[in-house]
Design brief:
Deoxyribonuclease I, Chain A; 2 domains; 6-stranded mixed beta sheet; 5-stranded mixed beta sheet; 9 helices; 34% helix; 20% strand
Length: 333
Amino acid sequence: MQFSARQEVVIRKFAATLFVIAALLLAAVLVSLVPSDAWFIRTVDLVREPLIYLAALLLIVVLFVGSSWRWATIGLLALTIGLNIWRLWPYSALAPTQIALAETAQTRSDDRCFSAMSVNVKVKNTQYAEVMEQVRRYDPDLLFLMETDQAWVQALEPVLAEYDHVQRHPQPEAFGLVFATRLPVLKSNVVENTYRDTPTLYATVQPQGSVPIEFIGLHPKPPLPGWNTEMRDENIVNAGTQTPDRLPNAIVMGDFNDVPWSRTTTEFRETGNWRDPRIGRGTFATFPADWLLLGWPLDQIMVKGDMKLQSFEVLPHNSSDHRAIIGNFCGPA
């Protein structure tokens, strides 16, 4: 196909622009491999999956743009895709699983089995009824709510009244929490692991017929401009290794503001001997709630010890910017 001189100039400029974008994408991915706490480096970890889609889309475009930049651009984009797939590989359906799901014969009719639900309600969200309706629909035995200020606590009282044990810890900003359960509670405490206003919930529960189980509810600060991740990372790692009772059987749930394949959450999992049900099954994005195909899994659920996991699920949109997650567990006898 013949192009005019003007069209040739436009094509060359477009091809050069694609090359620059591809180089920037690869540079961002390479820099993200550096062990740094800088927020602008750690943020790349959150968007590895969308970066694969973007790089793949650009690669398809490049194939149809004839220029001297084509093969160099294709190489940059292919390397970007390959590095991100390498980091995400354990969280693909092609990788081996880390935890087997328990036989479905064990159900909630077994006293040792129970459900736990984690919900980031979004403090500025005022659609209280939608969250309450979802909680009532799934009716978890253990409920962990995040970003609850006083208005949210008051609005949720009709739901919370249905639980035997409720611990309210509202905060005016985005790091309040509520813990509610029907399970027998041996102890429950809110601890400031790092930041004064980012509490961690530790509770010890004991379902009938089971040994005591430690529950950890976590919601550290995200990597944002002005907030590097050193304290967040310390909070995440400490939450799983410095638990009050050091019980061998435990569950952790919450908005980690981190993805499971990051250096920090990987250290959390390996240091504390946690097992992640996402490994070998998929990423199961939870944020942003309206764009899960382009989102990432900020909300985690893991177990350790002899805890059995029957199922876990990312729930439908409930008006928050996060999707809630729920798991069905069975404690050891």
